[in-house]
């Protein structure tokens, strides 16, 4: 007689908890994306809601800074769609094209961020942290796209996790700003040398831990077994 004890909780864990996690991530990404729309107003000289130090950075390097600030939200909003299994299975064309837009947005926004680092409002340390993030963000995203093109889909999925972990740094940074004020920092600029690392490093470590545990539970399938009928990206 088959023992069905424990199957219910396991099924809930494998089905509903990942959905809940993706939903929370998508909601937070949408909120930050909407909040970032205020940067479009700066094109018309409207600076409402813009930190004075961020305004100074934009005025010093308008093309670099606004390339990052206006395009990065596109990647932030599209990223969660790439991780919905049903969407990948039922609408592979949408998955491919939204993935291409995501990659392009990451590369352009990352290049803008990297070019803006010399003007970082938090000084050299903040510029270093955000510069490392920009290089890794671009490199990981391009590697994820190349892996898909070469039909190395297991690597593609893992690299996309790391890519979006860094994209999601925009959300984590904004969640950490109130904590910084509560700890006694007087401005965003004063806390940005720390935020330039803490906004994305924990995300990357969490993805690394999750991917390692997943690999132990579910060893990678062969290339032929993991290859879908249609080619993504």
Low-pLDDT stretches are 222-233
User: Hey, roughly how much beta strand do the residues contain?
Assistant: under 5%
SS content category: mainly alpha
What is the overall silhouette?
A: globular
Q: Which oligomeric form is depicted? A: single chain
Number of helices: 12
What percentage of residues falls in helices of 4 or more residues? over 70%
Q: Measured on Cα atoms, how large is the radius of gyration?
A: 20 Å
Order of helices and strands: HHHHHHHHHHHH
Please count the beta strands (DSSP E, at least 2 residues each).
Answer: 0
From the N-terminal CA to the C-terminal CA, the straight-line distance is 46 Å
Rounded mean pLDDT is 89
Q: Keyphrases for this structure?
A:
mainly alpha; 233 residues; 12 helices; 76% helix
Any overview of this molecule?
This protein has 233 residues and is mostly helical. The protein is built from twelve helices and no strands. The protein has helices at residues 7-36, 38-41, 52-60, 62-78, 85-90, 92-116, 124-149, 153-167, 169-182, 188-198, 201-217, 223-226. The protein is globular and about 50 Å long. Residues 222-233 have low confidence and may be disordered.
